[in-house]
């Protein structure tokens, strides 16, 4: 699972790396963008966008990906699975 830290943002995000449209581990290589005050990652293959906060897919909600809470504790990144 990739950990995302958008530029100029202290918040960390963790979502599945699997693009459900291509069935490939590529979301970690996607481009982060902002839309309607939310951060999204666009798949590098088919360009579908997934919201970093919850994995929701903008183009097809039935293809959303898993998302996990992330925090920094004593300098260590922790993901709640």
UniProtKB/TrEMBL annotation:
EC number: 1.7.1.4
GO BP, one annotated term: nitrate assimilation
GO cellular component terms, A-Z: nitrite reductase complex [NAD(P)H]
Entries under InterPro entries matching the protein: NirD, Rieske-like_NirD, Rieske_2Fe-2S_sf
Keyword Oxidoreductase: yes
Domain of life, source organism: Bacteria
Keywords: Nitrate assimilation, Oxidoreductase
Domain Rieske-like [2Fe-2S]: 3-79
GO terms assigned for molecular function: 2 iron, 2 sulfur cluster binding; nitrite reductase [NAD(P)H] activity
PROSITE patterns with a match to the protein in the record: NIRD (PS51300)
Record PANTHER family: NITRITE REDUCTASE (NADH) SMALL SUBUNIT, PTHR40562
Name of the protein: Nitrite reductase [NAD(P)H] small subunit
Annotated source species: Enterobacter agglomerans (Erwinia herbicola)
């Amino acid at each position: 699972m990739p950990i995302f830290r958008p530029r100029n943002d202290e918040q960390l995000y963790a979502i599945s790396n699997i693009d459900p449209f291509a069935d490939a581990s590529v979301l970690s290589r996607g481009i982060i963008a902002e839309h309607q005050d939310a951060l999204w990652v666009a798949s590098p293959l088919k360009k579908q966008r997934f919201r970093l906060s919850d994995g929701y897919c903008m183009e097809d909600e039935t293809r959303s990906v898993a998302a996990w809470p992330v925090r920094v504790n004593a300098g260590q990144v922790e993901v709640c699975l």
